[in-house]
Write a structure and sequence with these properties.
The chain is mainly alpha-helical. It is built from 11 helices and no strands. The chain has helices spanning about 5-30, 45-50, 55-90, 95-100, 110-120, 130-155, 155-165, 170-200, 200-205, 215-220, 230-260. The longest helix has about 35 residues, at about 55-90. The protein is globular, with a radius of gyration of 22 Å.
């Protein structure tokens, strides 16, 4: 079968369109000019120093870390419950319940944010870091469920039944047998949820109130042209962190599949 040259051209063009902006980040992050344009003026690390000395940036970073860590922990915890229930038990309304849990994956974040904003204001909850965490847990939980469902479904049930035969309770079997086997999936879920929460903007913008988080801070700084080079440097650092976290998460995902003897059908997405 002959390969289509048109398909190859389309694939290359798509990858260039997708990754070219990311490739430009380090170029302008080290460019010795406040103007983001070619030709380049020279090499400098001044923008990283300016980024490092920005106190408002550190406040936003601290808030974002608090939100991302909390969201990752709660989303993974809820994901463990949902994934365990969906892969191990049958109960009335199971498809509908799991569908509702996964619904945020396909709903526009703008709609989710507006709905949450109306509900929270309606019941008198003040907008704060806590409300951002609520929104991010809602968004991250479906990803955690997807990752952990794969980990739980690949478990050999005979190991669980053998533990029961040897006198273990359901609680001790889950703690001593099941959790260690799905731990790579749990770690992957934590890392993916952390990355999604750290990068998320719309919910943080709607539900943050007067609390500054990293994504909203970056958006606001683009109003000031003299701040753009430092933001490019920050973007380069965040891309490196995201790639590192996703690489670690993928490593643990593959390790978990290999540990349970399952078949790897691809990456997270």
């Amino acid at each position: 079968m002959m390969k289509s040259p048109g398909l190859k051209i389309y694939t290359i063009a798509y990858l260039v369109f997708l990754y070219a902006p990311i490739a430009l980040l380090p170029i302008f992050a080290f460019n010795d000019s406040r103007v983001i344009a070619f030709p380049l003026a020279g090499f400098t690390t001044n923008w990283f120093v300016e980024m490092w000395n920005d106190q408002q940036l550190w406040i936003a970073f601290k808030n974002s870390m608090t939100i991302a860590v909390s969201s990752a922990l709660f989303a993974t915890l809820f994901g463990i419950f949902a994934a365990r229930a969906s892969t191990r038990y049958n109960f009335p309304g199971k498809p509908g319940i799991i569908g509702l849990i996964m619904l945020p994956l396909v709903l526009p974040e703008m709609i989710v944010s507006m709905a949450l904003l109306v509900i929270l204001i309606g019941i008198g909850v003040p907008l704060s870091i806590f409300t951002i965490i609520l929104g991010h847990v809602l968004i991250c939980t479906p990803y955690a469920v997807a990752i952990l469902s794969s980990a739980f479904s690949s478990l050999d049930r005979s190991l669980e039944e053998a533990a029961y035969d040897l006198g273990e309770t359901r609680a001790s079997t889950f703690r001593l047998i099941i959790l260690p086997l799905v731990m790579p999936g749990i770690i992957s879920s934590l890392l993916i949820s952390f990355t999604i929460s750290l990068d998320e903007f719309i919910i943080a913008y709607f539900l943050g109130g007067n609390q500054t988080v990293l994504s909203v801070y970056i958006f606001g700084q683009f109003r000031f042209p003299q701040k753009v080079p430092a933001i490019m440097a920050l973007g380069f650092v965040l891309v490196c962190i995201s790639i590192l976290l996703l690489t670690i998460a993928e490593y643990f995902r593959r390790r978990g599949i290999a540990k349970t003897g399952g078949k790897d059908t691809g990456g997270f997405l």
